[in-house]
Specification:
Blueprint: H1 14-27, H2 32-39, H3 47-66, H4 72-87, H5 94-116, E1 126-127, E2 133-134, H6 147-159, H7 176-183, H8 205-225, E3 234-239, E4 245-251, E5 271-277, E6 280-289, H9 290-294, H10 299-324, H11 326-329, H12 357-368, E7 382-387, H13 392-399, E8 418-421, E9 431-435, E10 443-448, E11 455-460, E12 466-479, E13 485-488
Parallel strand pairs: 3-10, 7-8
Antiparallel strand pairs: 1-2, 4-5, 6-12, 7-9, 9-13, 10-12, 11-12
Length: about 500
């Protein structure tokens, strides 16, 4: 591990080095650690406690050394930092010295690995007391993989095609009941007469959390792959609680008036109007039975995780589509007493028309002509063409690049609109034009406390003999203004 070790201090005596090597051999770690202990001035009285701390360091860092995430220079830095922490412990408390070395090693490893990660990397999950899987903070000092995370990494190698385990390689070939046995400290019947486990094997936190982490990963992958297309036309906002989210639109007084020499600045008039929507809770429970555990059957558990991930995305998609199709396709009622798509809002035609260059052009003009609350032009830029599957081909043709033989044949919508196709739209003729989310605000959605997507909770089953997993989605969506959207009922 430390092939190019060059001690910074003077060469230790042969007797001192022999004492360090004896302690290292008892701890079962590579002999090179003895050189570093001698270099750091570890005494014979503290050698064994120091070596035990280094043994914990060695165990926790080996997966990252094997995967290449920690190199020789990093290991030297971690080990020296840990030895310095151990030397700071005075007295003869061996346990305190061992713990100080292991803690310092873990902290320094986290610092090195965090500095080496690319921006935006998601750190390993942490757990709260209720069993909720929540993302770890990027500045966390405790993002070293736990045994539960390592087990989950091994489980994912069996649940997800192409997943190559790193810190959980040792668990990739392990049976489910063997993991439960290991996690429970061996408190399970090793005889396979009926392969019965004693009470408690299913309740061990490491194994239960490992199942939750793996389930959460599979569920989120399925959720992201099935997300609503309409969601791409919505802006995400924060929701600290379940109370209505009131969005205020401010307008008026935006145009600056001329100020003559010696004249006074005039006050602008601010007009505001707003809509509200709230986050609500959706969820289901599924389980991993004791029989599946004993039979080492991950199939139903894997399938349930995927289905509930897709189900969370389906819930959102239906809510988005349901908003657009309320009131016979006129959309939800707004605070002005009119529906979202209304002649008074200037965002629907007097008569429907099939999707074409002409009807798209009319829709674009209508959006461009939208006025703010004080009657000012706001320059809405159409960007998204939202259609049901029946209009997908027509929509793609309308925005496709065409080599024109004449000026009259030039496609005006090439590279200006993106097509979003959503199968949850029930009308085969109705189509929509929308601005990019927030330009201006139209459709918004929110998750409670900013936790995007579904969350996984776990507990020991009582009604079922096994472990239960609860999938919960705290989500809400709503329109906050009519100006960013246009609807044509088609023909």
């Amino acid at each position: 591990m430390f092939d190019n070790l060059k001690p910074d201090a003077a060469q230790p005596s042969a007797r001192h080095l022999a004492q360090m090597r004896l302690a290292v051999r008892k701890a079962g770690i590579p002999a090179q650690y003895a050189d570093l202990m001698a270099e750091a001035g570890v005494t014979s009285a503290t050698a064994e406690a120091t070596a035990q701390g280094l043994a914990q360091l060695h165990e926790m860092t080996q997966p990252f050394v094997s995967s290449g995430r920690l190199d020789q220079a990093a290991m030297l830095r971690i080990t020296r930092h840990a030895l310095k922490a151990g030397a700071a412990i005075t007295g003869e408390d061996s346990a305190a010295r061992t713990q100080a070395i292991a803690t310092a090693a873990g902290e320094e490893t986290q610092v090195i690995m965090a500095a080496a990660e690319p921006p935006g990397r998601v750190y390993p999950s942490q757990f709260d007391v209720a069993g909720l899987i929540v993302p770890a903070r990027a500045d966390s000092r405790h993002a070293m993989p736990s045994r539960a995370e390592s087990m989950a990494d091994g489980l994912l190698a069996r649940m997800q095609a192409g997943h190559i385990p790193t810190h959980g390689r040792q668990y990739a070939a392990m049976r489910l009941d063997e993991m439960a046995h290991l996690s429970n400290g061996g408190n399970y019947a090793t005889r396979r007469t009926g392969t019965m486990m004693v009470a408690g094997a299913m309740s061990t936190d490491d194994f239960r959390f490992a199942l939750a982490i793996a389930s959460n990963k599979v569920l989120l992958n399925a959720y992201e792959a099935s997300e609503s297309q309409i969601k791409k036309a919505s802006r995400q906002v924060s929701a600290p609680d379940f109370r209505p989210i009131n969005t205020v639109r401010v307008s008026g007084g935006v145009e600056l008036g001329k100020v003559n020499e010696g004249g006074e600045f005039t006050a602008g008039v601010i007009n505001d109007a707003g809509e509200a929507f709230a986050v609500e809770t959706y969820g289901k429970i599924f389980g991993l039975t004791r029989q599946a555990l004993v039979n080492d059957d991950l199939g139903s558990f894997d399938q349930s995780s995927r289905l509930f991930g897709q189900g969370a995305a389906l819930t959102e998609a239906r809510l988005f589509a349901g908003l657009l199709e309320k009131n016979g396709g006129a959309g939800p009622a707004l605070s002005d007493g009119r529906t979202l798509f209304h002649a008074d809002h200037g965002n629907r035609p007097t008569a429907g028309g099939a999707l074409s260059i002409e009807t798209l052009s009319a829709a674009r003009v209508a959006m461009r002509r939208q006025k703010g609350l004080s009657g000012e032009a706001i320059q809405v830029q159409p960007a998204l063409l939202i259609v049901p599957p029946e209009l997908e081909t027509v929509a793609q043709k309308l925005v496709a690049e065409i080599t024109a033989a004449s000026v009259d044949d030039v496609n005006p919508f090439t590279d200006t609109l993106s097509v979003l196709v959503d199968a949850h739209l029930t009308s085969a003729t109705r189509w929509y034009l929308a601005a990019q989310p927030g330009r201006p605000d139209g459709l918004q959605h929110a998750y409670l406390d900013g936790i995007t997507g579904p969350q996984v909770f776990t507990r020991d089953g009582f009604e079922i003999d096994g472990t239960q997993f609860k999938v919960r989605l705290d989500f809400g969506c709503g329109f906050v203004d009519h100006r960013a959207w246009y609807m044509n009922p088609g023909a």
